[in-house]
Amino acid sequence: xxxxxxxxxxxxxxxxxxxxxxxxxxxxxxxxxxxxxxxxxxxxxxxxxxxxxxxxxxxxxxxxxxxxxxxxxxxxxxxxxxxxxxxxxxxxxxxxxxxxxxxxxxxxx
Length: 109
Ligand code: TYC
What we know:
Strand order of the largest sheet: 2-1-3
Distance between the termini: 37 Å
CATH class of the domain at 43-102: Alpha Beta
Bound molecules: L-tyrosinamide
């Protein structure tokens, strides 16, 4: 048996009962919404650049958004999701397109 200074976490102590349990950070779904004006190629490029999708994945997501109205780009901790929304919105407006990128709390599996 190894000797270690780390407490054996298999045995609960009285202190453990009063400590708050650590939770994984809340995660956020980043979505693209459809519109009638943003070019398909631009949406595919956004998905490749900002969400690290392959061209095939990006094309599949773009068609899903086009056909169903919205599509999932990725699931991230809050600050990363926020920065994706800002970056995509900024890039879209800089090109004069109305593409909308939004985030929503992920309810988990
Ligand atoms: N509907 C757009 C078109 O026909 C393409 C498009 C796809 C726009 C996905 C936005 O999130 C979007 N040019």
